Amino acid sequence: MFPLPAPMRAALDAAQAAADQGEVPVGAVVTHGSRIIATGGNRPRGGFDPTAHAEIVAIRAAAEYLGTDRLIDCDLWVTLEPCAMCAGAIAHARIRRLYYGAADPKGGAIEHGPRLFEQPTCHHRPEIFPGIGEGEAAALLRGFFAARR
Amino acid sequence: MFPLPAPMRAALDAAQAAADQGEVPVGAVVTHGSRIIATGGNRPRGGFDPTAHAEIVAIRAAAEYLGTDRLIDCDLWVTLEPCAMCAGAIAHARIRRLYYGAADPKGGAIEHGPRLFEQPTCHHRPEIFPGIGEGEAAALLRGFFAARR
Questions:
Q1: Residue B11 gets which letter from DSSP?
Q2: Which residue of B68, B71, B85, B94 is the best one to mutate when testing the A interface, meaning the one whose CB has the most A CBs within 10 A?
Q3: Which of A52, A79, B16, B140 is the most buried (most CB within 10 A)?
Q4: How far is CA A141 from CA A80, B65, B89, in A?
Q5: Where are the alpha helices (DSSP H) in B67-122?
Q6: Collapsing DSSP states into helix, strand and coil, what is residue B35?
Q7: Are B123 and B93 within 8 A, CB to CB?
């Protein structure tokens, strides 16, 4: 075991906070250099916003913070493989590196489904680092859905 | 020539308003029954928000208006073929019908690129009606980019 990088630790905490609000537990963080500049928890239901996945919440907050729509030199850390919507947002935001935890065979769009960053028309592809903190991220999701069955 | 449906007329007006603000001219409208409940213009630059495509702006406004994250029985009208981010948002929002104007071979994700609604993992597919108002929508985009060259 090695300790998780601090941004993924923060993303997992945001996922737990989402679960505490009754939302599917996914969390995300944007870093600029080594600094966390934005954190987002999944909140489509409570926020009345179908686009409010953790990644979108964090990307919007980071862009507002930096006063730009291009997150150059920024990295995104998220507990679950991003969906097509979020992968598209990552490309639009020009995220430099994408770190994610658990794979998502049903909804993921990075290594599953449309594999968006492998599409010839994709205009920006981040460096991709999967599997960081995946055990804890997946356990959060399993616990959440088990409690609802 | 037949007159454009009122929602596409409103989406084209929103696209023109975006151009007037220096944004790539794309506009969108959400209807509930025959009523327009939300309008969105593309505004990533001015809004410091890489996710602020016209469709996302309109979907978020419609969901907030209705107080839900599921736009059941709602239709989206947009002047340009949606990208992957927006197509993903359309699926998450459970949009019933998608009407769009101009095709977008470079950035579109409906009839081009990843063709998201044809992916086996896609969990919601709206009815799709392309080409409505495409001449005017494409002319707006051509004019915008020609003025910037």
A1: H
A2: B85
A3: A79
A4: 9, 30, 21
A5: 84-93
A6: strand
A7: no
Hey, where are the domains in chain B?
A: 6-143
CATH classification code of A6-143 = 3.40.140.10
Six token digits for residue B10: 């409103």
> Which pair of structure tokens corresponds to residue B60?
């978020």
H or E element in which residue B144 lies: helix B134-148
Q: Measured between beta carbons, which residues in chain A are less than 8 angstroms from residue B106?
A: 121, 123
Q: Is the alpha carbon torsion for A103, A104, A105, A109 positive or negative?
A: negative
Q: pLDDT tens digits for B26-42? A: 999 999 999 999 999 99
Looking at the DSSP bridge assignments, the partners of residue B114 are: none
- Global pTM value: 0.97
Q: How many CB atoms lie within 10 A of CB A20?
A: 10
Q: How many angstroms separate the CA atoms of A66 and A73, rounded?
A: 12
Element of type H or E holding A4:
none
A74 and A2 in contact (C-beta within 8 Å)?
no
User: Which of B112, B109, B135, B145 lies closest to B12 in space, CA to CA?
Assistant: B135
Q: How many CB pairs under 8 A join A and B?
A: 131
Interatomic CA distance for residues A146 and A138, integer angstroms: 12
For residue A7, what pLDDT is reported? 98
Give residue-wise pLDDT tens across range B75-89. Answer: 999 999 999 999 999
Find the residue in B nearest to A57 (Cα).
B51
Q: Interhelix angle for A84-93 vs B84-93, to 10°?
A: 140
